[in-house]
Amino acid sequence: MKKKSADMKKGAEKKRTRVLGICCNWSPFACYLAAGMNRLAMPPDFRMMRVMCIGRINQALILRAFEYGADGVILLECLDDDCRYGPGPGVGHENVRRVRKLLHLLGVDQERLVECSFGAHEKEILVETLWRFDDQIKALGPMTEGDALGVKRSVL
Amino acid sequence: MSEIDRIIKDHSLFQCLECGKCSAACPRRLTGKDYSPRLLAHKVVAEREDEAFIENAVWDCLSCGMCSERCPSGVKFSGFILEMRTLLAEKKGLKGYRAHDGAVHSWMRMMAAPELRQNRLDWVPKELQVADSGEVAFFVGCAPYFDVFFAGIEVDTLSIAKDSIRLLNFMDIKPVLLRDERCCGHDLLWTGDRENFERLCRLNYETFKTKGLKEIIVSCPECYLMLSEHMPRVIPGFDIKVTLLLDMLQREVRKGGMTFRGLKRRATYQDPCRLGRMAGRYAAPRDLLGLIPEMRFAEMENSGPSALCCGNCGFINCDAHSKQIQVQRLQEAKATGADLLVTACPKCLIHLTCAVRDRLRHGSMKMEIRDILSVLADQIAWYGGE
To answer: Which domain holds residue A98?
Structure first.
């Protein structure tokens, strides 16, 4: 499964794209740890930011990832009923819906922002999702020739 | 001469007599915030070693211009704050607590990227007449973005743009709308990000030129201030006429032929700082509102040159004191007995609507707030028309 994606990557060696995953500390991070334990390969251009809950992330923080130079952002969240705090994934859905509208206005492809829910045992699905998202962003290409859309800053 | 010396000189801070009228009038000071324009002026002139104080105070100002209005010595305090912020931001980075976690500033900065191809005109309804090319354009501003972002507080800023175009159509003008229009950069400039402000100016000017425009019509006072005053400073040889829609309306109404349908409401008017104190347009909105028959108009306790700020500028430093200013303003509006608060700036509309919806006030602040252009667009008619 992973090999196929890795081969696809070799074919097109263009400017590197940068994918940011914002990961909830609970189910998705458990998947991520388990995937690491099982030595499942991760996309090399994937960076992860761990937060306690996706409900902590607001529209501004997602937008800022793009401002600072991310070419794709994926929100990794718990299943709706699994949230340790209650409303987390719901907040995530609403934020993604609204930020996608803003991205559309800006002329940024809405597919660059994705959210995905995981149960605590779904490490294979998580890794597969990340590879698929990485491929999707590679197909769309980098957002700009420069470092970032907004201020030139080497943040990511 | 150091950069600070130049800024002080350019804005006449040496003329300060320390009379304290600025601090006595500052809305932020009056709500109990530990901020004083007088003290900042003193520190910057005489005790510049107190860097921590100066660096904090410079970001606290609302830039509403009340201090300059009251100053007997002609100190240009808002301009001083603007340049100090630019200077400090270059040296120490952008400061000031950014409201909404800086989402507004993020999309404004993203607009400074030349490769961006926006889809900002999806909202234009079919019944409005707009042109693809021509010499006169309407500058929409950030309304489509605010409309998405502030959907949560049910404030409809896009209707101001729609009503502006309705008014233009009424005057037989089919404005060009620009797909590649960028933010005017007001908020970036006032939060110290001069680099991106200038980038936006250049991109906008390029768009104006490639479209072959001769005149830009603006409805938002902030866009007007940027395009008419600050953009020509960035772009040498700026040769595009910038017209404020309110001015244009006033001119056209004087020519005759137009009239307004009656509106049985009691209204009051909030002067936006960018339109009033900074652009000196006190009479135009009042004259136009005065033409609406059956509408009763009452001034608030503080109006015209001493109008109170809507509590926030450039989406930084919104705090409990901002809320208190807004509540005070709404109370003044209520005290006039008005049931309609008319304003002329989308930011005033957003900030005051936010305060009206404050849950702790249990709806006691409830009041309809509308933009002047929306009110006029609904009432305007030709003589002898239906």
So the answer is: 17-140
Q: Which of the pair, B285 or A68, is modelled with greater confidence?
A: B285
Number of domains observed in the structure of chain A: 1
In a domain, A52, yes or no: yes
Residue A61 falls within a domain, yes or no? Answer: yes
Largest CA distance in chain B: 69
Q: Is B327:B30 a contact under the CB 8 Å cutoff?
A: no
Mean pLDDT of A113-136: 96
Tokens of B225: 């201030």
Q: Is A61 in contact with B195 (Cβ distance < 8 A)?
A: no
Supply the DSSP symbol for A115.
E
Whether A21 is in a domain gets the answer yes
Contact A106 B151 (CB under 8 A): no
Instruction: Give every residue of chain B whose pLDDT is below 70, as ranges.
Output: 385-386
Q: Say yes or no: B46 contacts chain A, CB-CB below 8 A.
A: no
Residue B386's pLDDT is: 52
Given an 8 Å threshold on Cβ–Cβ distance, is B119 in contact with A149?
no
Q: Which domains does chain B have, with CATH numbers?
A: 3-92 (1.10.1060.10), 99-250 (no CATH), 256-382 (3.40.50)
The reply to whether B93 touches chain A by the CB within 8 Å rule is no
**Residue B73 near residue A114, CB atoms below 8 Å:** no
pLDDT at residue A154 is higher than 80: no
Tokens at A134, concatenated: 């990485």
- B285 contact partners, CB below 8 Å, separation of at least 6: B246, B269, B271, B275, B342, B344, B372
Contact (CB, 8 A) for B116 and A107: yes
Q: In angstroms, what CA-CA distances link B146 with A105, B6, B101, B200, B343?
A: 11, 37, 15, 18, 17
- A10-29: pLDDT as tens digits: 444 566 899 999 999 999 99
Q: What is the pLDDT of residues A69-106, one digit of tens each?
A: 899 999 999 999 999 998 999 999 999 999 999 999 99
Answer yes or no: is A118 within a domain.
yes
Of B284, B311, B375, residue with least CA distance to B338: B375
CA–CA separation, A45 and A67 (whole Å)? 18
Using a CB-CB cut-off of 8 Å, the residues of chain A touching B196 are: 150-151
pLDDT at A4 over 50: no
Find chain B residues with C-beta within 8 A of A149's C-beta: 109-110, 113, 116
Smallest CA–CA separation between A58 and chain B, in Å? 8
Q: Say whether B106 and A150 touch across the interface (CB within 8 A).
A: yes
